[in-house]
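As a warm-up, study this chain.
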Amino acid sequence: MNEMREVEVAVIGAGQAGLAAAYHLRRTGFEPERDFVVLDHSPGPGGAWQFRWPSLTYGRVHGMHALPGRELTGADPARPSSEVIAEYFTDYERAFDLRVRRPVDVTAVREGANGRLLVESSDGTWATKALINATGTWDRPFWPRYPGQERFRGRQFHTARYPGPEAFAGLRVVVVGGGASGTQHLLELAPYAAATTWVTRRPPVFREGPFDEDAGRAAVALVEERVRQGLPPKSVVSVTGLPLNDAIRQGLADGVLDRLPMFDRITPDGVEWKDGRRVSADVILWATGFRPAVDHLAPLRLREPGGGIRVEGTRAVVDPRVHLVGYGPSASTIGANRAGRAAVRDIRRLLAEPAGEPVAA
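Now compare it with the structure written out below.
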């Protein structure tokens, strides 16, 4: 489509961060479709949650924070989180009349005329004065490369396409990754698989005791400092450690969470280390995380030499018209809500500047 339309603000992505930003735009007087537009490439509401595996029930979700202005109440903890949160997001979009356009694929954001940005998409081109990018990470699963990987005769999965534990019944499974997903997969797979092996690049760090507000702020500050320096963001979880709950303790006692260092190569029938140790495997499950989905922003040249986008608050330092929410320190459900509010506050200031005047940092 070649149709060109103008808006004050374009929001890319309708997960937690995108909906929070759209809510605050609506609340401060912006009208959807007239003043702002929300573009989402998913088939329906729910953000990345709609793609989570069925065995991840709502009761097992850690830290799902309600969207601003509407609580999530009365959800059955035994239902799949993909269903519960998709229904909640659907209700939220209707309640606040956010008019999300989907499925819309944004292919590029580039410089336009008269100080506007051009958002090129399968729904045409939108000329906008400001951009809120809320594309998250789910679309960019990180697959490490190891020698021999292409010759492995078994199957390889990433967390992004994890089918649930039943698919691994009777199989020998190597789980790669020291984060929350890796330990969840191991604990869930163990009763089904013929054997499980856990490998990580670094020894896992288990966190004792409650994770209070001070600890949370300290963790976010570490991630925030990286994005200030223009380095690729790490997840908040990567600096908090794994909570030592009853399930983890049982997994350690049973030997399910007996971790091995990272293997050196993949063989046709398993993995092996330089010292000659070998483990046979039918499946390698990569619980190796995700990277920010920001390739469509490449024409704006926002990346720093360190590989990341330097961000102050939510604002891209190179281009103050661009705000990244759900990126780096705001890549959590509560962080996404706060980032959405902060981005809208900054954008209102930006749009209030006289034409041609520099935007205050």
